[in-house]
C-alpha cells in the first residue's frame, strides 16, 4: 500500500513501451490534475446501468486521490446528472435505461469514494442532449484554466490523469477531448472499467486513446518505484 506521506513529490513512472525502450517520468504536482469519472451508484454493481466490477476501481482511485492531495494536484469529480427525460434513456428512444437522474440515489457518488472538501465536481449531460466527454457542454476546460489563477500557478494545469467509469465511453471521450485541447493525458488503466457492449470495446478504446497520444499507466508503476 502506498502511504500518503510516502508519495508526496515523487515521480510517476509510466511503463508503456516506447520504441527507444525508455519510460515516461512526470512529476505529480499542482500542474497536474486527477479527473475521476462517473464513480456513481448507478454505474456500480446493483445500479441501473452497472459496469461489471465497477466498484473495484474505488480503492485504487482513492490511492490516486491521496497522491494528488499530498502533492498539491487538483482532484476533479465528474458525474452524469441527467433530467428524468434525458435523450439517452430508452423511454426517450435512446440506448440506455434511465440512470443517474438528478437528485436520485443512483446519481450519488459511491459511498467509499474519497471526496475531499476541496475537490471540484463537474456535472455533465444535465440537459436533454447526450454527452460522453466531460468537456462537452460543461465548464471543465474553464475550471482548469481558473485553477491557474486560484492556485497562483505559472502555466496552469498541463497534464490530466483520467480514470473511472467507463473506459469505452466517458473515460475515452474525456481523454480524447483533453488531447484535442492540448493537455498531456494519462489513462489510468488500473482505475477504469469498461461496459463492453461488445467484448473488444475496452481494448479498442485503449488502443484509440494511446494512438491519439494518451499514455496508459497504472499505480503499480508508481508503487514499484516508490517502495
Polypeptide structure, described:
This protein is of the alpha/beta class and 227 residues long. It has one domain (5-226): 3-Layer(aba) Sandwich (Rossmann fold). The protein is 26% helix and 17% strand. The strands form two sheets. The protein has a six-stranded parallel sheet with strand order 5-4-3-6-7-8, with helices on both faces. A two-stranded antiparallel ribbon has the order 1-2. The longest helix is centred in the N-terminal third of the chain and has 15 residues, at 57-71.
The overall average pLDDT, rounded, is: 83
> What is the assigned CATH homologous superfamily?
Isochorismatase-like
Can you tell me the CATH class? Answer: Alpha Beta
Cα Rg:
17 Å
- Biggest sheet: strands side by side, in what order? 5-4-3-6-7-8
pLDDT under 50 segments (min length 5)?
1-22, 223-227
What's the β-strand tally?
Answer: 8
Q: Cα distance, first to last residue?
A: 9 Å
Residues in helices, as a percent range: 25-40%
- Number of discrete helical segments: 5
Global outline: globular
Strand content: 15-25%
Could you say how many structural domains there are in total? 1
CATH architecture: 3-Layer(aba) Sandwich
**What is the makeup of the main sheet?**
6 strands, parallel
Tell me the series of helices and strands, N- to C-terminal.
EEEHEEHEHEHEH
Quickly give the structural class. alpha/beta
Would you tell me which CATH topology applies?
Rossmann fold
Relevant terms:
single chain, 227 residues, alpha/beta, Rossmann fold, six-stranded parallel β-sheet, two-stranded antiparallel ribbon, 5 helices, 8 strands, globular, disordered N terminus, disordered C terminus
Amino acid at each position: 500500500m502506498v502511504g500518503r506521506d510516502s508519495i508526496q513529490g515523487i515521480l510517476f513512472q509510466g511503463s508503456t513501451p516506447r520504441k527507444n525502450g525508455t519510460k515516461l517520468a512526470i512529476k505529480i504536482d499542482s500542474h497536474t490534475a486527477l479527473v475521476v469519472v462517473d464513480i456513481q451508484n448507478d454505474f456500480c454493481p446493483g445500479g441501473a446501468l452497472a459496469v461489471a466490477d465497477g466498484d473495484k476501481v474505488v480503492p485504487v482511485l482513492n490511492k490516486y486521490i491521496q497522491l494528488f492531495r499530498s502533492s498539491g494536484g487538483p482532484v476533479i469529480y465528474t458525474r452524469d446528472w441527467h433530467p428524468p427525460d434525458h435523450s439517452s434513456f430508452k423511454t426517450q428512444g435512446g440506448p440506455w435505461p434511465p440512470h443517474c437522474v438528478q437528485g436520485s440515489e443512483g446519481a450519488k457518488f459511491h459511498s467509499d469514494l474519497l471526496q475531499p472538501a476541496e475537490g471540484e465536481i463537474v456535472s455533465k449531460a444535465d440537459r436533454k442532449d447526450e454527452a460522453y466527454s466531460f468537456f462537452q457542454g460543461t465548464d471543465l476546460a474553464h475550471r482548469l484554466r481558473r485553477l491557474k489563477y486560484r492556485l497562483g500557478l505559472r502555466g496552469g494545469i498541463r497534464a490530466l490523469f483520467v480514470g473511472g467509469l467507463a473506459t469505452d465511453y466517458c473515460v475515452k471521450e474525456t481523454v480524447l477531448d483533453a488531447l484535442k485541447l492540448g493537455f498531456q493525458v494519462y489513462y489510468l488503466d488500473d482505475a477504469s472499467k469498461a461496459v463492453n457492449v461488445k467484448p473488444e470495446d475496452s481494448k479498442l478504446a485503449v488502443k484509440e486513446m494511446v494512438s491519439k497520444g494518451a499514455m496508459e499507466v497504472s499505480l503499480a508503476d508508481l508503487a514499484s518505484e516508490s517502495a
